[in-house]
């Protein structure tokens, strides 16, 4: 069922935890310390792959067009867009016009010293710029080239332009997001781009392991639509086995009940009690323990068959309480449940603080910026934000050319 959207309880009055500052400017540390990466991508997919590798300790040299830089420098919301500060952290900016012979030679020189190259241009672009990965790997046999694109490097659609939203549509995501009586919706973040980047990073790590054993690099081909397809659970298998096509179902997943967002007097609250034992605990918390033995709700399939009926029954109960009252009840009962957070909730939450899920990075223009930390957490070689995003295009050219190439800019 669709619950009307309402305002949550304000969080501004909640006590705010002490600030965690994980920024490490020492320039060392992390599992990938010593790995050199050249990032030639722009916007989201390529740069996010670079962010992930940089968070784990790799040195990321980002090549940017001298005049404009990466367009991500201007992305974000509010009067002080800050997305660049997240996606470009732990990176060094080197200005290079890849459309010019001089810029292409600079790229080749840097790539010859690199372990990994990241790019997310339309297939064929590198080759057009005299940066064919085959030639680059001939000069540097251990080079790993991560290529992120809309449709992959091969196949009939490979030359098409493809942004994240197109990959989400082709991979099946957009078709199942939203309510059945409305057009397909989207998530509020660019999930197709970040998934493709994450799989590109995963491929790079696997390729590094292969190189450690053989000395040989390879190409990592990560397509946006395939990255989305990979997380689509049994969508294709269910169609193959039973002819069933998943459709848009709003905030509920068909056959998984109860698991929905339920109304409270001051907002909405998510409860997931679709396992038999957990549902029994929820029923007891509701003061209706008999529901767990009722043939209509006692099993997974039975609850799934009466999903809307069960959601309505639970929703009538939750509507009598505030979010705080319901949360206390769910915690006491051991039922998986939680508030629907926004950024203000995250900044104020003590669990985020205790796990250092948010870090503070000093920024010369914007002051101290809060942003997501480094995940996953490694016990022996934890990642970190070692340096803030470069403020100007090419600000690190002299430093990088001296350290990597032993020459002046």
CA-CA gap between termini:
62 Å
Provide the domain count. 2
**CATH architecture grouping of the largest domain:** 3-Layer(aba) Sandwich
Residue-averaged pLDDT, rounded? Answer: 90
Would you tell me the structural class of the helices and strands?
A: alpha/beta
Low-confidence regions = 1-27
Helix content: 25-40%
Protein name: Formyl-CoA transferase
Biased composition (Basic and acidic residues): 1-22
Pfam families: CoA_transf_3
Region (Disordered): 1-31
Would you summarize the structure shown here?
The protein is α/β, with parallel strands linked by helices and 409 residues long. The chain has 16 helices and eleven strands. Helix 6 packs across helix 7 (191-214).
Explained architecture:
The protein is of the alpha/beta class and about 400 residues long. It folds into two domains: about 35-235 and about 355-405, Crotonobetainyl-coa:carnitine coa-transferase, domain 1 (Rossmann fold, 3-Layer(aba) Sandwich); about 260-345, formyl-coa transferase, domain 3 (2-Layer Sandwich). It has helices at about 45-55, 85, 100-110, 125-130, 135-140, 165-170, 190-215, 225-230, 235-240, 275-285, 300-305, 305-320, 325-335, 345-350, 350-355, 395-405; strands at about 35-40, 60-65, 90-95, 115-120, 145-150, 220-225, 260-265, 265-270, 335-340, 360-365, 365-370. The chain has a six-stranded parallel β-sheet with strand order 3-2-1-4-5-6, sandwiched between helices. Strand 1, helix 1 and strand 2 form a beta-alpha-beta unit. Helix 7 (about 190-215) packs across helix 8 (about 225-230). The radius of gyration is 25 Å and the shape is elongated. The termini are far apart. Keywords: Transferase. This is Formyl-CoA transferase. InterPro entries: CoA-transferase_III_domain (IPR050483), CoA-Trfase_fam_III (IPR003673), CoA-Trfase_III_dom3_sf (IPR044855), CoA-Trfase_III_dom_1_sf (IPR023606). It comes from Sphingopyxis lindanitolerans. GO terms for molecular function: CoA-transferase activity.
